[in-house]
Amino acid sequence: MKAFDLLEATLGHEMTPGESWQDDMNLWQWLDDGILRVEPLKPADSRNCDRAIVLSCGIHGNETAPIELLVAMAKQLSETPRRLQARVLFILGNPKAVVNGSRFVDENLNRLFSPQYKQAKPQNPEQRRASDLMRAIDEFFSLAAPHQRRVHYDLHTAIRDSKHPFFAVYPHSPEGFSRNAVARLQAADVDTVLLSHAPASTFSHYSHCYHQAEAFTVELGKVKPFGGNDMSKLEPLKRLLEAMLYGLWPTPQLDEQRIKLFRVTRAIHRQHQEFSLSFADDLANFSRFKKGQQLAQDGNEEIVAEHDGEAIVFPNRKVAVGQRALLTVIQSAPSILTD
Ligand SMILES: O=C(O)CCC(=O)N[C@@H](CCC(=O)O)C(=O)O
Ligand SMILES: [Zn+2]
């Protein structure tokens, strides 16, 4: 089979939605722009494989390392067909923003994964895309047999430097934060995990909340243009994903000495047009503050650190009014995890 390029196929509109083809072992289906399902060819194999895995990238159009990673993985599978142990959904999230080289076109796509956007008339390309992606996820997981493990890794890169460059956001999880799921991230050198305190309208939260998937937003270093990423740093993640796709299900032990867990304490949303952060634009994610130190000024409200050692993640003074402008987090012991 000709090497399949997920990025070219998406941006070049090379495929027709519904088009399918096969190699010696797997059935490939182009469900829509940038939405590719690959599953074992024999229906019996497809039913018996015990995993349904979603791998997404490009939800923000300028976050290129994850796109390069998933393009390479799909290309390798097309060139050298291998027996999949999983049904797999590859997603390139926001093709229009990828073309622009921008985070988004009209609106941040990763704030729109909420059932309300499946019903409402879309007001812009991102609202339409969020609706299409949620439907693709719903269909993919609804076709999973009850015994199939559901997984979604939504891959991103961050705007700022970070004291912990590879980190994940674990969506709000009233049933507890799984030690085994965190151990899998650690095996991929994602050694820092934020434990969310509340529901959000992100892609990973959608899969976790509505489909009980082991789902994470995974940050893989800093935003760089295509070709500017050091892809060797993503090798451990690639190996983990390949084990999930082709091997025995990975069950690494958590290294409690090395894992860094942070409990989210606040999601601070910008409320006023007059909004500023009280620290430099190049201050790294996970920088810590002392209790009472100012973090932001929002209209007349002064926002301060509530605890010694409170750290900031994803600060962005340019977000629209009403949007999340930063998270505050506190380091936690591994005993916070459940099994
Ligand atoms: O570096 C930044 O400020 C943003 C990087 C990014 O896109 N992060 C995701 C995190 C999603 C989550 O909280 O699960 C986002 O902001 O959408
Ligand atoms: Zn992102």
From TrEMBL:
<dbReference type="GO" id="GO:0009017">
    <property type="term" value="F:succinylglutamate desuccinylase activity"/>
</dbReference>
<feature type="binding site">
    <location>
        <position position="60"/>
    </location>
    <ligand>
        <name>Zn(2+)</name>
    </ligand>
</feature>
<dbReference type="InterPro" id="IPR055438">
    <property type="entry name" value="AstE_AspA_cat"/>
</dbReference>
<keyword id="KW-0056">Arginine metabolism</keyword>
<keyword id="KW-0378">Hydrolase</keyword>
<dbReference type="InterPro" id="IPR007036">
    <property type="entry name" value="Aste_AspA_hybrid_dom"/>
</dbReference>
<keyword id="KW-0479">Metal-binding</keyword>
<dbReference type="GO" id="GO:0016788">
    <property type="term" value="F:hydrolase activity, acting on ester bonds"/>
</dbReference>
<dbReference type="InterPro" id="IPR016681">
    <property type="entry name" value="SuccinylGlu_desuccinylase"/>
</dbReference>
<protein>
    <recommendedName>
        <fullName>Succinylglutamate desuccinylase</fullName>
        <ecNumber>3.5.1.96</ecNumber>
    </recommendedName>
</protein>
<comment type="pathway">
    <text>Amino-acid degradation; L-arginine degradation via AST pathway; L-glutamate and succinate from L-arginine: step 5/5.</text>
</comment>
<dbReference type="GO" id="GO:0019545">
    <property type="term" value="P:L-arginine catabolic process to succinate"/>
</dbReference>
<dbReference type="InterPro" id="IPR050178">
    <property type="entry name" value="AspA/AstE_fam"/>
</dbReference>
<comment type="similarity">
    <text>Belongs to the AspA/AstE family. Succinylglutamate desuccinylase subfamily.</text>
</comment>
<comment type="function">
    <text>Transforms N(2)-succinylglutamate into succinate and glutamate.</text>
</comment>
<keyword id="KW-0862">Zinc</keyword>
<feature type="domain" description="AstE/AspA barrel-sandwich hybrid">
    <location>
        <begin position="258"/>
        <end position="331"/>
    </location>
</feature>
<dbReference type="Pfam" id="PF04952">
    <property type="entry name" value="AstE_AspA_hybrid"/>
</dbReference>
<feature type="binding site">
    <location>
        <position position="63"/>
    </location>
    <ligand>
        <name>Zn(2+)</name>
    </ligand>
</feature>
<feature type="domain" description="Succinylglutamate desuccinylase/Aspartoacylase catalytic">
    <location>
        <begin position="51"/>
        <end position="238"/>
    </location>
</feature>
<dbReference type="GO" id="GO:0019544">
    <property type="term" value="P:L-arginine catabolic process to L-glutamate"/>
</dbReference>
<feature type="active site">
    <location>
        <position position="219"/>
    </location>
</feature>
<dbReference type="Pfam" id="PF24827">
    <property type="entry name" value="AstE_AspA_cat"/>
</dbReference>
<dbReference type="GO" id="GO:0008270">
    <property type="term" value="F:zinc ion binding"/>
</dbReference>
<feature type="binding site">
    <location>
        <position position="156"/>
    </location>
    <ligand>
        <name>Zn(2+)</name>
    </ligand>
</feature>
